[in-house]
């Protein structure tokens, strides 16, 4: 059987179209050789999420966004197609997050830990993650607001400066007038009181001359008082020294007399007879006390019944 050239061209064009279609969809993320499950997620705001955006787990693509449609109440329903060999527990969350700095969106699955698994066409819990672009927006909006407030404040301050400048100019003019008036008044006052000032200056000079002469007169008198005070002090010191000298000489004479045996103190120190007499007197007194203790009747003769005993011999 012979196939015409037209048929061959048509078959080739059909195959090329199929290959192109499959390749295009494959590049968009569709996998025609593996089975997939469908899941739905409902968001309040998807913020730029479009069809064919990827669904990832731990940074690895496991599916893509199939359909994005608006529901009643301004809710957004997103249909996801995910690999069938990836079981999803019922507490899994689909986190809407940013894909890089350019503001793209993707859905990141946060796998749960429940034992029960979601069935095909089940509903995944929604979630939202603040990306870098969102943070920039959150920080930039207050900054822009503050810049607006700052510009308004600068305008007010500028107007205040303009008003203040006018006031300062008026103040400077008034100051110039005041200075001119003061200069004239001061000049007139000085001219009027010039004679009085000259008289006061002459009186001050005379007073200074009198004070100088008084100082010259007082200097000799002060010198005389100083010499008199010095003489009195010297006289008192010489008298005290003379009295002390006489006392020392008298004490020296007394010590010499005692040393040579003169007077009672000298005899007491130099004469041994006084020491011997005292020893004998003490010995005799000791004997007398012993004898008095042994024979008290010899010294005190008292008898009640008239009897009398012989006394023992006296201690010698």
Structure write-up:
The structure is a single chain. The chain has 316 residues and is α/β, with parallel strands linked by helices. Among the domains are: 1-33; 35-129, no CATH class; 271-297. 57% of the residues lie in helices and 16% in strands. The chain contains five helices and eight strands. It has an eight-stranded mixed sheet with strand order 7-1-4-3-2-6-5-8, with no helix packed on it. The radius of gyration is 69 Å and the shape is elongated. The mean pLDDT is 77.
Number of helices: 5
Report the radius of gyration as a whole number of Å. 69 Å
Decide which structural class fits the backbone. Answer: alpha/beta
Q: What's the pLDDT, averaged over the residues?
A: 77
Write the layout of secondary structure elements.
Blueprint: H1 5-27, E1 36-43, E2 54-57, E3 60-70, E4 76-83, E5 93-99, E6 104-110, E7 122-123, E8 125-128, H2 132-192, H3 194-260, H4 263-270, H5 273-294
Parallel strand pairs: 1-7, 2-6, 5-8
Antiparallel strand pairs: 1-4, 2-3, 3-4, 5-6
Helix pairs in contact: 3-4
